[in-house]
Design brief:
Radius of gyration: 30 Å
Helix content: 25-40%
Strand content: 15-25%
CATH topology of the domain at 315-476: Jelly Rolls
Largest sheet: 7 strands, antiparallel
Order of helices and strands: HEEEEEEEEHEHHHEEHEEHEEEEEEEEHE
Distance between the termini: 117 Å
CATH architecture of the domain at 315-476: Sandwich
Shape: globular
Structural class: alpha+beta
CATH class of the domain at 315-476: Mainly Beta
Number of helices: 8
Length: about 475
């Protein structure tokens, strides 16, 4: 019997087939590895995108909840410029800030601040305001998304005494509510009241303080006579999470979402974030986050913060003229979450344009940065067209504080005794050294380095709102 044999050709074909199979297998592995890499990268991109969007959307809520705790923390001795107060009670700044007061960057020199954090989940509260007929005042109501949902004051509700019942979302009247109360339903169970009371210089503190003392908050049960003993409110719990946790933002956001039910239109957006462990009912589930996801989410928080900060230079949010920057969206953000977050951080408490406009200039009329090494002039054809008052204030660009100077003048406003021409026009002179002659009466001191200027226009006219009247630019004179 003949033994089976392989020819040299058959052996070569077999070896070639084996090599081809190995090559195909290696190629398949390479393709699978490449697909796996691309898939992992796509999933990482999704995690990053969700993380950035969650930051832009949720950072306002986290900020406002943090402010609620900060502004009710009285564990340290408070200065008389502080407006902190116990939960459900007002705190009042009793005097205007000076350069020595560092607790309020870009503080105004026109009004005294008042603040109150309300927790309506414990009980509705009655806000009472007195007759205020000799000056401007306003109390803004902000929800925990920094929506300014109600104005109380000179422009919106008038100068006569009134009472407002502030209630949580979904509250139902049982028929026993006193009829004299104006009912205001808050979108969230916590509310920040932010008040401004005009003060006519330091000699007017006593009169302004008396008005502040008449802003009162009363539990509904006490106001209606149903409470048999004083109401004792629970304090707010401390911030959740640990200080050294790089994902603490998500921990806080998750807890605050539990306490702030979302309107229906926001629920679809929030539903996406379950993929990164964040839900509105369970909070932040750290076990759903892998090590790789954790690194990606940390990066998302960092970049989200940069995006928010950049909104101050986003042309889509601003109007610019003669070196002045205007924004008209401080109470109407819509779905611009990045802008909302910006306002809730460095511009916390800003009002809408019908109440006040705050143009800011960090450059002169030609776009060159302002610097106290130079002298500048602003020329007004007449008083700014406003329904209440106006002011121009200088701040040190490095510290964002008022500028210490030899005449203790930090702003010029409609009450300042300044020189005017026969036709009502006038000039404001900016310099680090006191001018000589008549210019000194209209002098607004600057630091010897970079500075910026803030104009405040309270109850602006139609000409201001449509920018047919604008703040004069600063012109270099040396």
């Amino acid at each position: 019997m003949l033994k089976p044999t392989f020819s040299k050709i058959s052996l070569a074909v077999l070896l070639a087939s084996c090599s081809l199979a190995q090559a195909n297998f290696a190629h398949a592995n390479t393709q699978q590895n490449q697909i796996a890499i691309e898939t992992n990268q796509a999933l990482a991109n999704e995690t990053y995108t969700l993380g950035v969007n969650a930051y832009l959307w949720g950072s306002t809520l986290v900020r406002m909840e943090q402010i609620s705790r900060q502004y009710t923390d009285l564990s340290q001795t408070q200065a008389d410029t502080s407006y902190r107060g116990p939960l459900n009670q007002f705190g009042h700044a009793r005097r205007l800030s000076s350069p020595a007061d560092t607790d309020m960057p870009t503080a105004n020199r026109d009004t005294l601040y008042s603040s109150a954090i309300l927790d309506l989940s414990q009980e509705p509260l009655v806000l009472s305001v007195p007759d205020v007929t000799d000056r401007y005042f306003v109390i803004n109501m902000f929800d925990m998304w920094h929506n300014l949902f109600q104005y109380v004051g000179t422009r919106e509700t008038g100068s006569l005494a009134k009472q407002f019942l502030i209630v949580p979302p979904g509250w139902k009247d049982d028929g026993t509510t006193p009829r004299n109360l104006n009912i205001i339903e808050s979108p969230t169970s916590k509310v920040w009241l932010w008040g401004r009371t005009q003060v006519f210089g330091e000699q007017d503190y006593a009169a302004a303080n008396t008005i502040q003392d008449k802003y009162t908050l009363t539990p509904l049960s006490v106001y209606s006579g149903q409470a048999k003993k004083p109401v004792k409110f629970k304090s707010l719990p401390p911030r959740p999470g640990k200080t050294d946790d790089p994902l603490r933002f998500f921990v806080e956001l998750g807890e605050y979402l539990k306490a702030n039910p979302l309107p229906e239109r926001q629920q679809a957006l929030a539903g996406q974030f379950a993929k990164i462990g964040l839900t509105t009912d369970q909070g932040f589930d750290r076990s759903a986050v892998t090590t790789a996801m954790k690194k990606t989410l940390i990066k998302a928080i960092e970049d989200g913060q940069k995006i928010v900060s950049a909104q101050a230079a986003n042309p889509g949010n601003l109007e610019m003229k003669d070196g002045w920057v205007y924004t008209f969206a401080l109470d109407s953000f819509g779905d611009d979450n990045a802008m909302r977050s910006l306002i809730a951080h460095p511009y916390l408490g800003g009002q809408g344009p019908k109440e006040a406009i705050y143009p800011m200039a960090a450059t002169d009329a030609k776009g060159v940065p302002l610097n106290g090494q130079n002298d500048y002039t602003m020329k007004f054809d007449g008083e700014p067209p406003v329904g209440s008052f106006w002011s121009v204030t200088v701040y040190d660009a490095k510290s964002k504080l008022l500028v210490d100077n030899e005449i203790d003048r930090y702003n010029i406003n409609d009450l300042t005794d300044i020189n005017k021409n026969k036709d009502g026009s006038f000039e404001i002179h900016f310099s680090s050294d006191k001018p000589k002659g008549s210019e000194a009466q209209n002098w607004l001191p600057t630091p010897d380095g970079p500075f910026y200027v803030l104009a405040r226009l309270y109850i602006p006219s139609k000409e201001v709102l449509d920018m047919s009247w604008t703040v004069p630019g600063l012109k270099k004179t040396n």
